What does this fold into?
Amino acid sequence: MDQAFELLKTSRGVELADDELSKQPLTSSSFAPLISTLHPTHPREARTLTEVLTLCTQPSDDGGLNLTPTTPLTPCHQRKIHFLISAWLESLNSSNRSVTPPTPLPSRPSKRRGMTLTEKIFAHHDISRQGYVRSGMTISVSVDWILASDASWGGMSRTCNALNSPGIFRNNRFWLALDHVIDPRINHRPEVKKLIEQSGKGV
It folds into this structure.
């Protein structure tokens, strides 16, 4: 549980003085006392960890990890649980940022080159608020919605893989429309197989 405590601290600034609980092994049943400890003073974080617990115990067919209180956790299970905790806690930060739209910078940064309209939009939503973007930069942005079709998902998937698969922190703001029908008679073709595989990962 110590890593869950660390994620609460680094992502949300929540420090819990409960050494005994932090030393408990990470299991689906050990979440309950952590959630109870958080609820009086940090209800949003408690609700978020409840969502994580639900995902951990849901059947795999429903997108969960299919864990039970007696399931021995493998290192792979632990990595997935830590990722879920990190992603759902970050979703709270994203929600906080979306309450108030980013305000324009009071002045143009010195020595900033001229930018295209697209670059200005990205710079305006840059979380670090540098005031500019340039080709080759990787930035974290606050966005309203992401809409994509399965045709564009291939390129997005390659970018996600290049960034070490960071995941989607607010899946209620990401919509992937699978709007192509594949003829079963051509399922054997390599390019079609690749499209099916990429679309499956997107879902």
